[in-house]
Amino acid sequence: MAIRKILNYTEPILRKKTKKVEEFDSELHELLDDMAETLAKANGAGLAAPQVGVLKAVCIIDVGDIFYEFINPQITEHSTSTNVHDEGCLSVLGKNGKSVFYPVERFNKVTVEAYNRHGEKFKVKLKGFPARAAQHEIDHLNGIIFLDHVTDFTVKK
Ligand code: CO
């Protein structure tokens, strides 16, 4: 395992749509292991492959007791209800080198369908902060940064 460099959101790759994973091979497993190690060291809630310079539809979330590896994920269902909460990103750092936080509206609940590292399809229902993290990370796979959703930049912390 190795720590990978987390890119700043101004890097062009963070704006590209990722490619689907077709080979569930050792290269994918190494990427996932490195991402988990990188995320743990950065003390973040989630990380997407483009943030470490890999244009593949791979992301992970690590929120308390909840850890998921999502490969080729899709949000197939979501609640109509939403909530607004402060959100940050390991690719969006302030001058002090720490994540900046802005309020973002997200669905309260989402259903994610994805593949695991062995190429097996699974489905998970998430709510609250894990649901927020999944929406944030899946956005990254489509070249979307959370700043795109921010409507009020005056409440920066
Ligand atoms: Co992010």
List keywords for this structure.
19% helix, 2 helices, 157 residues, alpha+beta, five-stranded antiparallel beta sheet, 7 strands, binds cobalt (II) ion
First-residue to last-residue Cα separation? 34 Å
Let me know the largest β-sheet: 5 strands, antiparallel
If helices are DSSP runs of H or I spanning 4 or more residues, what is the number of helices? 2
Question: What small molecules does the structure contain?
Answer: cobalt (II) ion
Strand element count: 7
Q: Estimate the global geometry from the Cα principal axes.
A: globular
Low-pLDDT segments: none
Q: How large, in whole angstroms, is the Cα Rg?
A: 15 Å
Share in β-strands:
25-35%
Helicity level, as a percent range? 10-25%
Structural class: alpha+beta
Side-by-side strand order of the widest sheet:
1-2-3-6-7
Give the topology string: H per helix, E per strand. HEEEEEEEH
